[in-house]
Structure formats: structure tokens, C-alpha cells
Amino acid sequence: MKDFLLFESFISQYVLITIYYIGAFALIPSLLLFRRFVGRFDTARRLERAFGALWNSLDFTDRVKAVSMLFTLFLFMQICWRILFEILIAYFDMHDYLQSISKLQN
Questions:
Q1: What's the N-to-C CA distance of the chain in angstroms?
Q2: Cβ–Cβ under 8 Å, residues 23 and 81
Q3: pLDDT tens digits, residue range 71-96?
Q4: In whole angstroms, what is the distance from residue 54 CA to residue 46 CA?
Q5: What is the value of pTM for the model shown?
Q6: Alpha helix ranges (H) inside 1-106
Q7: Which of 30, 49, 87, 99 lies most in the core, judged by the most C-beta atoms within 10 Å?
């Protein structure tokens, strides 16, 4: 308990994993809420009409390509999100390991 209170050991791995899952699963609802909020502005409505016109001008194969590209970008973003948290967890694991080595030498 003393190590925790003096910040000599971190609880970060559990917190990081929790934040990762909250971010991974809350991303889509958050984006939909953000879209609703931004949709109040005139510029956003004009952009939505322009993208709607672009979408309507595409044939079926181009729509499939566009959706698959967006899905690929979403997967890539999720992979980058995961890698970011793996790096953070590895950093804190290294810190804990170096702390244990330091205690052994003293």
C-alpha cells in the first residue's frame, strides 16, 4: 500500500486496459452523437448535402468500394488504438521491472 501511495508502483495497466475498451466500444456512439451536434451548423449541413449528392452519383460497385475503404480505415484506426495502448502498457511494465531490479540491487 505504501508503494501505491508514494507512486512507486502504478495501477496504470488496469486503467489503460479499461480506457482502451471504453474507447474501442464507445467510438461509434460518440461519433454519431458528435455528428448530431455538428449537424446543427450550416456548414455541416451543406457538406452533408454535397456528400449525399456524391454518394447518389456513385454506381453500386463504387459504393461497395467506398464502404469497404471506410471499413478498412476503421479497422486501421482500431489497430492503431490498440498499438498505442500496448506501447503504454509495455512502458509501465518496463518501469515496474526496472523498479524490481533496483530493489534487488539495494
A1: 20
A2: yes
A3: 999 999 999 999 999 998 888 888 77
A4: 12
A5: 0.68
A6: 2-5, 12-38, 42-57, 60-105
A7: 99
